[in-house]
Amino acid sequence: MSKDYQLLHDPAKGPMRTVVFASGSGTNFEQAIIESRMPGSNFSIDLLVTDKEFKKSKSGEEKRVIGAINYAQQYRIPHRFINGFRECGSWAEAQKSVQGMREYQMKSEIFNLKFLDIIQSFENEAGITFDLAVLAGYMRFFQGALLRRFNGHAVNMHPAELNKFTPDGLRKYVGENAVYDALVAGETRTRSSMILVDHSVDGGAILASGPWLNYNGERPITSDLADEHQDIQKRASDWPTERFTLREIAHGNFALSTIKFHFDGNPVVLYKGNKMPYRGFELD
């Protein structure tokens, strides 16, 4: 008899093997590493893949290795890299025309296929199969071949509450400027959300919602004020939510219903067999 739920990871198959995607500082990546090395975590971080290798210094005169790669070297985790800008070009420029967006999407599909080839080659060399992909500050489209490979088994930390909607029923605070958008809209507190990755922009099922962080700063909101708040939110909400979710997935405590769905089509999330509300498991 078929089950009416699907585990994100079945611990009976062994420890959860994980690949992390990152584009920047890698602080969420480091937190995942730390949690993976806690006693009884039941998961490992086996590979880092990035779409960039260097960042410019503040003066713009020198290049420095991005933080995520530094952490990979520090913790002795294998790293693979493909230059996303060289492969795909600029998304900001592409959006200026329909043709530009189409070309960017096509290049992105090819880029993701190349990443998948690298990941599969690593799996063959290491004799493992990845159970989960973690997007830790990864700033490129996760779609096409990569999304099909990790369908239902890729998670992303999003720095906003996703249980608020536009008049059209769409999630209100999505995209890379979600914290800024929330504060500009008058929100007095923010939280992070661990979600499943799907074909949409921050539209996947919510596994867990992190602790709230109050905003008591100046208004009107500027980009700098929002960035400062988001840096604090990383520590207060991103990190505990990420570590909790990865550990609990690895222990088989998160599942997706195959028969119950929310109004937006996302499956109902189960935690330890209990149906969660739309915002998933809530951390205090």
Structure description:
This protein has helices at residues 27-36, 67-74, 84-88, 91-94, 98-126, 144-149, 178-184, 223-250, and strands at 5-7, 16-22, 43-50, 54-56, 63-65, 79-81, 132-135, 154-158, 189-190, 193-196, 206-209, 213-214, 254-261, 267-271, 274-275, 281-282. The protein is globular, with a radius of gyration of 19 Å. A hairpin with a 5-residue loop joins strand 13 and strand 14. The longest helix has 29 residues, at 98-126. It is an alpha/beta fold and 284 residues long. The strands form 4 sheets. The chain has an 8-stranded mixed beta sheet, with helices on both faces. The protein has a 4-stranded antiparallel beta sheet with strand order 1-13-14-15. Strands 4-5 form a two-stranded antiparallel ribbon.
Topology summary:
Elements: E1 5-7, E2 16-22, H1 27-36, E3 43-50, E4 54-56, E5 63-65, H2 67-74, E6 79-81, H3 84-88, H4 91-94, H5 98-126, E7 132-135, H6 144-149, E8 154-158, H7 178-184, E9 189-190, E10 193-196, E11 206-209, E12 213-214, H8 223-250, E13 254-261, E14 267-271, E15 274-275, E16 281-282
Parallel strand pairs: 2-3, 2-7, 3-6, 7-8, 11-16
Antiparallel strand pairs: 1-13, 4-5, 8-10, 9-12, 10-11, 13-14, 14-15
CATH topology: Rossmann fold
Quaternary state reads single chain
The CATH architecture designation is 3-Layer(aba) Sandwich
Number of helices: 8
Label the structural class. alpha/beta
Give me the count of strands.
Answer: 16
Which percent bin holds the helix content? 25-40%
**What is the total domain count?**
1
